[in-house]
Write a structure and sequence with these properties.
The protein is mostly beta strands and 295 residues long.
Amino acid sequence: GGVADVFTGAGAAVSISTFGGGISNSGTIVAEAAGIEVGGFASGNSSVTISTFSGGITNSGTIATGTRAGILVGGSAFQGTLTISTFRGGISNFGMIVALSSHGILVGGDASVITGTAASVMISTFSGGITNFGAITAFSGNGIFVGGHAGGSGASVTISTFSGGISNSGAITAFGANGIFVGGTADFGGAVSVANFSGGITNSGRILSPSANGIIVGGRVSNGAVTVSSFSGDIVNIGRIFAGHGIVVGGLAEAGFSGAGAVTVSTFSGDIVNSGVITALTGHGILVGGVANAC
């Protein structure tokens, strides 16, 4: 991937047609930005495009990052366009990921607009799922995040198809956010969409998320929209979840003077099954629904 950046005139572009063979780390990566990233950053009417990436990403070593995710498929768009058409092979972590100011593993990204030109992060097809056998620690972000954040009218993050589900048999610690998150956050007219998610979510390990949710499908908005159109598969806990809320399908929507807020999970096809231990520190063990506020 890369960086495409321009503020006036015609846009700049970074394009990769086909990348085969995947990425594997069995050593140590220490980075201020992302440890491993397939995607990039696009701003000012510019674009970053990856047509096909096959082979997946595997970490059996150590990744420590500062401002961005440990493993990132996607990226950021500030009044630009970031597109990944096809990503095959999934993401597997057997090692250790420590993210100081972002997420452990992120598929999606962040789109923002101040005024004028739209911004978009688009992943058309992601196949292979996300599996954690190791340890993920995120100090201010989510442990595993499929979706993103959109801020400003005309900003959008879209994942059209995600297949393979999410599985944790290791340890996820998210001090400032959610353990596993499918959906996103949106404000000031932004929109996040996960159109088709299949494979469900299974936790047979440990999730520690003391200030948020252990597992959430949905999101949080303030004058924006988050939509999960179709979620197929079960949410299963046979491990331990220690969180503010244990398992949530839904979220929080707030509307203010500048517009409406909506969190929508259109179709959830599956069950929520717990045969493990859920400890909800401040809220619900299992919640289907949420909170809607109008200011």
